[in-house]
Each structure stands twice: as C-alpha cells, then as structure tokens.
Input
Amino acid sequence: MRDREREPAAEVLARAVRGVEPGDVPDRLCAAAVRLLPVSGASVSLCGDGMPVPLSASGARAAYLMEMQATLGDGPCLRAAETGAPVFARDLTAGRDASRWPVFAQQAAAAGVVAVYALPLGDRSVCVGTLDLYRDVPGDLAADEVRTARLVADALTVALTALPRGEEAGRRGDGLWLSPLATDHDEVYQAVGMVMAQRKVASAEALALLRAHAFAAGRTVLDVAHEVVARETRFDTD
Output
C-alpha cells in the first residue's frame, strides 16, 4: 500500500524533508514522489543556459532519461520548462506523443519507460526547473494524482528558491548545496566555450555540435563534454 493511501501527501512530504540538509531536499522529494504516485522514477532539473541542468534523480534510469533529454535538447522536460506549463506524455510508444519527440520516445521506450509527466517548478513568468515523473505503463494520471504531483512540484519550487547561496552557503560558495549531477554539468558549459573558440561559432551552435556528436556516438552530452575539457576530443578538425 502506497503512502498516499495511508496519510495525506503533505504530511509525507513534510516528513521527507524535516531536518535534512538543503542539498538533500531534491533527493528526498524525488523519493517521496515515487512513494506517493504510481510512477517508477522521478528526476529534477534546473533551467540552464540552453539546456536543463540535472539536479536529482530517484534512480539510474531516471537519471539516464534526464540526461537523454539534455543531450537531445528535446523532450517533455524541455517543453515544460519552455512553456511553464505541465506536459504529460501518456504513451511514448504510439500516437501523438511518440511522434512529438520521436528520438526521445524511442530511447525512453528502450529503457522501459512509456509515459512521462513533466511539471514546471514555477510558472510561465518564472520557471526554475522541472519535476519529471516516469512510468512503465501508458496512461494518464488520475485527478488526485495530478494534485499530488503538483504538491511535490510546489514543495520543490519553494525548496530550490529558498536554498542558501553565496556567503549563506559557506566557504565553498554557490555550489555548496548542488548535487554532483549539477556540478558535473559545469563541464558542459566549459566545453561549449572551448568549442566556440575552436570553431569560431556562437554558443547555441557550439552546444548543438556537442549534442550532435554525443547522439551520433550513442553517448550523453556530459560524456562528450568531459572529453572536450580533458582535450581528448576537439572540434576544430574535420
């Protein structure tokens, strides 16, 4: 029996984050979402410059699908961040959802995920990121489940906007509360800068080149960024 059948969702969420360090809040809320809802995984991404920045995931598969959307530059997560409105893909194996994001849909289905529910953390005026929920079977969330998902998204929005920064975060500075998933993505932006210099192109084109290289090699943009920063891969040769 799920927690949602035993006690109010708000109490589950409050207990999940009570007394934990700020950096642990996204992980705890992702885990709570999986307990409260009929989903197999959850992830949180921050809105970044040109691509989402993975922050937290409930497991390896959720982390992979989050990275895949960042690599492709496409998927429900990016659409929710762009519009500030929920984006629900009820069946990635057929119909409109499969054709809307064909490459991501194929990758998700291959990983065993056939439905994705992406909720913005914020709204159309200010969106700080997204909460993505993954399910192994197609279908819509029920009305009460959507309300619970929105409650989790609201809790994440409040937590992320209230996290300490600068001097409040301590001597390690702004990145103190960020997870390894997020701090690893600093290398993506470093790689974009290096590709800009190597190819004499703007940042958007440099990011597109990284994404294309990653997709062609069947890897993530983060993997390729590691190699660029380590000078193992260059983009100034044909």
